[in-house]
Amino acid sequence: MIKVLCVDDEPMVHEVLRTKVPWDAYNMSIVGSAASGKEALDYIERHEVDVVFTDIRMPQMDGNALIAHLSKSNPEIKLVVLSSYSEFSSVKKAFVDGAMDYILKEDIGSAAMLEVLQKLKNEAFERGAGSIEEAVKETIASSTALKSFRLYVLAYIKLHDKRQIASVQAELAGCGEARAYPSFPWQHGIVVLHGLADPHDTSPIQLLAQMAASAVPSFTGEWEIGISRPGTLTECRLLFQQAHQAIRRKYYEPDETLFVYEEESCPAEQLRTDEIKKELRTSFKYYRIGQIHEIMEDVLRFMDNHRLDKLKVVNELTDIYVYMVSLLLDYGLVPKQVVQQHSAVYDQLVGKRTFAEIRDWVYANLEEIDRNCQHEKNNNTIQLVMNYIGHHYEEDLSLGKLARRFGMSESYLSRSFSKEAGLKFTEYVNLIRIENAKKYLLHTDARIAEVSSKVGYANVEHFSRVFKQMAGVSPSVYQDKSDQISNMKYHS
To answer: How far apart are CA 183 and CA 125, in angstroms?
Structure first.
């Protein structure tokens, strides 16, 4: 996954970049954001970054200064300028300093942006393919111990603080075993090579683990080791990919530091997001709030069992969670503030280091939703009843049925409803049904009997009497002369 850092002092630009660009399709992910060149450098000092999209005009350190600095200190990072039409002279300077491309802010999300992403993806693949092969071949050529082997195992020690690479490699070089199996710095860590005479020999795994453990006894930062399967020199790029991929299991096994590559026995089953959304909608339609926990637990269990990639987890949960909150809002179970409070769901989830943290976040937010639901239910029970009628007017509604559903007596519901709605229960049900009947009569060719059934009246004659009483004319006249009566008011 290509890691992208966005640098701009305008929050709206960050929002557009996050929501309007199909990063997934180009194997990219926004891993961080910064409001100035200084913030960007602080972030890059502590995190892995492959691509930087940066504005030019920013406080503290502008984009040109950031580009000039990174071109010298981190030449492996690809730099793209986010520009405005008025900044052309500054963009020219950025190219001189080392930027590889630019995109107008007005074109974010357009075909021009997709061309830049494709170019970055292609260069990342070519750079990753050629460079690691070159580095491995040079290392083997310079090592007498490695030249005699036909098979190799590659270990990648990933360090979360890049400033520790030099000191850890120095420690590693001092290990007795490491002198025979050299290493070299690569990206955000160190690559160690081990020759293998027997493809079934598992001792390299133990040896590499011992070497790494002895090389970092005083190292206080976080680190992981990924170890590939045996392979030939021509497969060194694949070996590095295997080692790097093995480390991803850290997301699900946070207490481990050593990960040996394991091939997937079969393709991962897809998460059926559309079906999950249907289940959520059904649960909220019938006010079965408790079922949301079961649905989300099933989602988390699926992700854990299939070890989905972190970005996949974040994207799927963001999609499901935002949809879930929108349903709660649609059915009047939470106030609008809750939706606004969780508008940055993606940013919260992508910042979680492990799947356990993701799970804790989901459970904490489910509890918060439950509290909001209970609060709204206690303080807005009649509004909930009204919302229910609005969504279920076509059903057989009675005062007793809704009293039982919402846990109150018929007399209490009757009195409270009349006080809150300003209408008796039956009057309000008829009002909602006739309002929807008018829409069917105006916008469809349905027969009167069909409309009567669609809005909850089993008896078409009763429907016609209620309709005429409230609309002033019969359903058939209303349908025939809809243009003339569109502004007519209800009669008491």
So the answer is: 23
